[in-house]
Amino acid sequence: MLKTKDLGYWYDNPKNSLFENVNLEFEAGQSYAIVGQSGSGKTTFLSLIAGLDKPKSGSIEFEGKDIGQIGLTNYRKKDVSIIFQSYNLFTYMSPLNNLLTAMAITESSHTGDKAFAADMLRKLGLTDEQMKQNVQQLSGGQQQRVAIARTMVCDARLVVADEPTGNLDEDNTAEVIELFQQIAHEQHKCVVIVTHESTVANACDNAYRLEKHEFSVI
Ligand SMILES: Nc1ncnc2c1ncn2[C@@H]1O[C@H](COP(=O)(O)OP(=O)(O)OP(=O)(O)O)[C@@H](O)[C@H]1O
């Protein structure tokens, strides 16, 4: 589904590249963890495959097409869902309206289908009352489940997550990992997760380590 071709990136000086000549493949129906020391460039890599920034060298192909050709704005809207450690929900809205808004913005095939959105939130453990409250009244684990539900009601087939369990306790982490596995295996999407946590990396179908400017399979 997604391929990096001789991908390279640096911030200020080409001599200080974070990584170069990276050739990795990510398939639909699979989950991938990316681990590595702090500052090694994991988030940078994720932002490149999410179309938030442009490669300094090489390219990224999504379903056989250079994402630059798809157009990064179009790619981010249609093909990618992003989940952050800090949830990034519309804080002035209810969970239900967060989902309905995301569906409308991304022109999801389920746009306007309130019952579908409510059903997804119910499946992820929210009560009918909670889904209509302001999201800020929910716990961290519940807010992250809303962010994940948002991904599940949108059509984007690449799901990227940056430290999605960073603010969660053990139980919520286990539940969130299980949801990512469902997204990969049941929705047949490709899930790429940057994580510090070995439990998350071990639970994913595949894991890469970014170390000394290179990716290796672990
Ligand atoms: N906008 C920026 N401008 C300049 N340097 C940056 C910028 N963003 C990140 N960096 C630097 O690039 C390197 C890689 O950062 P990145 O956030 O990708 O690493 P990371 O592996 O995700 O780290 P962490 O695990 O701590 O989140 C770091 O040394 C960081 O200071």
From TrEMBL:
SUPFAM superfamilies: P-loop containing nucleoside triphosphate hydrolases
Domain ABC transporter per the UniProt entry, residue ranges: 2-218
UniProt keyword annotation of Membrane present: no
Record keywords, A-Z: ATP-binding, Nucleotide-binding, Transport
Record GO terms (molecular function): ATP binding; ATP hydrolysis activity; transmembrane transporter activity
SMART domains to which the protein is assigned, alphabetical: AAA
Pfam families according to UniProt: ABC_tran
Cellular compartments per GO CC: plasma membrane
Coiled coil: none
Family indicated by similarity: Belongs to the ABC transporter superfamily.
Protein's name according to its UniProt entry: ABC transporter ATP-binding protein
Organism: Paucilactobacillus hokkaidonensis JCM 18461
Lineage start: Bacteria, Bacillati, Bacillota, Bacilli, Lactobacillales
